[in-house]
Amino acid sequence: MKMHSPNTRPRIRLLPPMHALKVLVSNLNGRHSPIQTAANDHEVDAIERHALNVPHSQTDTVSYLQIGALSGRRVIFVHGTPGNAKGWVDYLLDVPDGRQHIAVDRLGYGSSTPGQAVVSLRRQAQAIAPLLARQDKRKPILVGHSLGAPVITQVALDYPGKVGGLLLLAGAFDPDLEEVNCLQPLGQLKPISRLLPRTIDTANRELLGLKRGLIELADRLPALSVPIIAVTGDMDPLVPRANIDYLESRIDSVHFEKIVLVDRDHFIPWHSKPEIDEALERLIGRVRKTEDQFIPDPEKRV
Known about the structure:
Layout: E1 11-13, H1 17-29, H2 41-45, E2 48-53, E3 61-68, E4 73-78, H3 89-92, E5 99-105, H4 121-128, E6 141-145, H5 148-158, E7 165-169, E8 179-181, H6 190-193, H7 198-218, E9 228-233, H8 242-250, E10 256-261, H9 268-271, H10 273-294
Parallel strand pairs: 1-8, 4-5, 4-6, 6-7, 7-9, 9-10
Antiparallel strand pairs: 2-3, 3-5
């Protein structure tokens, strides 16, 4: 198994000035594409928004959008960096019968608090954990894009037995693949960070701290025992396909399935929704089979 250097700092890439600027903007804005959706503002505003306080925290609250059957199979969507719950609007306005869809504003984004970067994957996971509680035995499915993918993986590891399955979309996992542009550390300097929009400043700090979180996550990946489908685009310039191969090498093949979309980039939740919908439906089918194994058939009771 691949071992990682104890150095938690991401490698710095020294690029020509114009290319460097493009990569910086791409990394700050690019891991969450400009949203292309057919939904209008009225439809989006009509979706119920809720908020809850994160247990054992004096500062953290998580805001989320919720739609669908209250008694349906819960699917929780977690965005990357930057982003917010509305990025999943096409999935919120297209809820199959028998499902409930929830999209969260991760800590540091949207209407969730605090209004600053929360780099810790564990703390991000703690904010999502209260949404896992259900009255029935059907465990929620978690869907995460980009940095949202390691966040939901952290949830599954920290709260075993409460997650039904994971759908990982263009997720970053290999610490050795984390690189930053040489201009990004400058964004942490107060004179510069004060000039940046809050969302961009938050995203920059998250990306700079991601390698440390992935190193801490790495040794725990083999413990994952829920059905997992990982989807990536073979033309992704931001989170390389090698990340999905890294996952495959660390997770039991009984639980893991990978899908590589041809000629697709990082923004698969938006331009590849039919493929994502199909993967989600297949994942739910796998989760249902595992649940059926533990639910006794009343007709077979003696």
